Amino acid sequence: xINKSIHLAALGLFLSAGVYAQSVQDGKKAFFDGKLYEAVxxxxxQTGNPEGAYxxxxxYIEHDDFDLANSVVSQAMGANANDPFLLAxxxxxxxxxxxPADAMQSFNAAIAAAGKxxxxxxxxxxxxxxxxxxxxxxxxxxxxxxxxxxxEDYATEKGVKEKNQNKQLLADIAVxxxxxxxxxxxxxxxxxxxxxxxxxxxxxxxxQAEFRKALIFKSQRNYPMFMERLDKAIAAxxxxxxxxxxxxxxxxxxxxxxxxxxxADKIKAAAPQDPNNEYxxxxxxxxxxxxxxxxNSAKSVINxxxxxxxxSAYKVIAYSLIEGKKDTxxxxxxxxxxxxxxxxxxxMPKDYTLKAMAYSTTPGKEQLMFNTYLDAIxxxxxxxxxxxxxEDGGKFFGSKGKYEMQGDLYAKLIEIKPAARLSLNDFxxxxxxxxxxxxxxxxxxxxxxxxxxxNNRYGYIMAQxxxxxxxxxxxxxxLITDIDKLIEFSKxxxxxxxxxxxxxxxxxxxxxxxxxxxxxxxxxxxxxxxxDAAIDPKAKEQIKSFIDCNIYITAPETSGAVFFWF
Length: 566
Hints:
Blueprint: H1 21-32, H2 36-43, H3 50-62, H4 66-77, H5 84-96, H6 100-113, H7 119-133, H8 143-158, H9 167-184, H10 190-202, H11 207-219, H12 223-236, H13 241-253, H14 257-270, H15 278-287, H16 291-305, H17 312-324, H18 328-341, H19 349-359, H20 366-379, H21 383-399, H22 403-416, H23 424-436, H24 440-454, H25 457-470, H26 479-491, H27 498-516, H28 520-533, H29 537-552
């Protein structure tokens, strides 16, 4: 997966390489440069060596090819059952297969099997493996254990005399510890940032550290700093493909095709043999609305690169089918493949809307679509991404007439937004969605919060309108209370229609008391309020006739009069 963030899981530069040294080292370098296709081609011939098998498995895991990784580890452990790095890889695969107890056994076995010369690298491998696979939806794996082991490892290695320190290992541990802390405390990038910075103190060429800092700024939508750190990562290692891909996607998103093509050319130069380079052509076709060409080009990537195909190729096909062919049904398998093959940490907010779009014409998929958005905000650690996901989801369900689901997503948005960033519009959109969906009581709660928090006229108006529907008989004591609140607010409201609102609200209360409860004496004061506020002479005359009528008919010998206000 060329565009992946490289979550370093044990540099393993400390394993004995023997006769395989050169080829294995080349394979590891390709791995750390993000050239996964090249790494696989180098390492596939080195699986007779546990080191080569380990790094091949790590490469497959990085690309989410878990079956291939498991096959490599299983075969290698046949002759090297107690190799600590293979045990660490086994534990990572067990986490992927949702077997945390088995994984912990493997991780503890790896630590126990470590010798004095490789213990630090083994602890690094274990901690990094847990950190990479932990996510906030399923929370499989002990992220606290990972942090603990990496902290112990880092402290121990920092304590080694400087002349004996393995600077690259220290840098790697620091980066992995930063990654683990980001998983442990989502949204808090301050401490991870410190560790990434420390990694550069030990190895200024460690591009992964600058890259991680770039991703923190990306999560904060600080794009100038994001690009600055990407530049630094590339300066540290011009062959570091993940940073180049991030830069490519940034320019693509800003529609700067010239800059995007410049970066694409750099990626091609860094990995000239990679069939994933055809992805850039497919992407260009799609952006130019040449959908047939985009589909054919993306399929070429998939057919050539096979298991190591860039997952975004599937996304290009899906978008092309939906937008160009208007064929959402045909897009579904490509969307599903994309979600299977893309790593959970690399999804973009718009990806979830793509999934919803694909299922939108399939009956009975509404709940699946809705759950997609909920899972997305659980998984994403960026508040800004969470907000974008919920806003996109709300707009999507609104466009499909699924207003209650739209309201639920807007309500979730209110829940996750910091108080300082909430606005009356947040409550308005949620309340309006619920009202359109017929969930009047839930809508009322949003409008009630809107008027309470912001003293907003529309909050008062809409709260009264919704309670008039679900509490028309005032059994919940909402109808009359809302009317009274609306009238009192409107008396000081400077809006041009304020007096008309008073008239309408007062007449609603009068109607309730005189027509429904037959309590004329309670209704008459509202008639008087309406009369005082009325501007139109005809309206005043009509209201006056109601007042006179109802004063008269309160005599014991008469029954209550009935009137209607239009």
